[in-house]
Amino acid sequence: MRIIKLLFLLLFVLTIHGCNITYLNSSYTSKEKITIIRANTGRFNLIMGRRSKEIIRLCNLARKNPTLLKKYVEIKYGKEYSERKGITNLKESKRLKDVPLLRPSYLLTISAISHALISGVISQIGHQGFPLRVYLTGNFNCFIPYVLCGENCYYGEYKAINMFIGWMESSGHKSNIMNDKFYRIGMGGFIHFSKYKYNMVQNFSGPKILDLVIRPKQVFKNKK
């Protein structure tokens, strides 16, 4: 009985830690708190760090609720971040309710980590070998005709908010984050042995088999 209680306590602690809700104070309504927790789709991923999970949360808030994103960024990081154009340029739209949340993929995460690691060690920048990495990590869904894949790389910053805003202020990177054809995301970072000192990689793909099974209506709705 004692062991069962300890297991339940451990599960509770892991849940609280994974949801990262300790800072969700009275500034938010109950609905906003739930939206912020749901946006952290990577909360139970075992190989992503807190920084990667926070970036995924920010990406999902940008995709689903730009107004709440601005409020969240202002409360957590300060007005100097919430007033950046990468945040303020986002507009609310009726179509946002149909945009899927980005959900973590272990295989895409391995692909992102491998690129961050190799790029860091050899001081390389860019997207060299992206199709091969996607293939080697078993992301075969990326080769289905209507399924897209993409990659974002960032160099020089370490804080989640700086990376996110940097991507959102670059049209190509922003289009990947906001692309409603993307369902899955993987993230990984590593030291960059150059003037940049650090690099972070995001890999994106369309729906996986699990998405087709669990949410087929949404998948085929966004197919066109």
Give the neighbour order of strands across the main sheet: 1-3-4-2
- The number of distinct β-strands equals 4
Largest sheet: 4 strands, mixed
Outline, from the CA principal axes? globular
Mean pLDDT: 84
Rg (C-alpha, Å)? 18 Å
Tell me the structural class: alpha+beta
Roughly how much helix do the residues carry, as a percent range?
Answer: 40-55%
Question: What are the secondary-structure elements, in order, as H or E?
Answer: HHHHHHEHHEHHEEHH
| Strand residues, percent | 5-15%
Which residue ranges are poorly predicted, with pLDDT under 50 across at least 5 consecutive positions? none
Helices, by number, come to: 12
Distance between the termini: 54 Å
